[in-house]
């Protein structure tokens, strides 16, 4: 019986760890969608805005402003509407954590 309990506890821990890993990977997936304009991991080509290492609060504000239509854009207002506010915060935090 103890073996069953131990096995169940290990399985539960593995699921929890897998879930946490999935969340990290999901943010990377969201951020990868930005690569077309802002470059891989926020390292943009000349002429585009680089996001790597920028302030997360500033990026979050800009993303939320795009989403709400307070900041003019050609496409960002449409893209931002596809994410929840928390997802936009996570994306901003991801780019802020990238080295310039």
Automatic annotation (TrEMBL):
This protein's UniProt keywords: Electron transport, Heme, Iron, Metal-binding, Signal, Transport
GO molecular function, one term: metal ion binding
Transmembrane regions listed in the UniProt entry: none
Pfam families xref list: Cytochrome_CBB3
Keyword Transport tagged: yes
Signal peptide start and end residues: 1-22
Record protein name field: Cytochrome subunit of sulfide dehydrogenase
Organism: Tepidimonas alkaliphilus
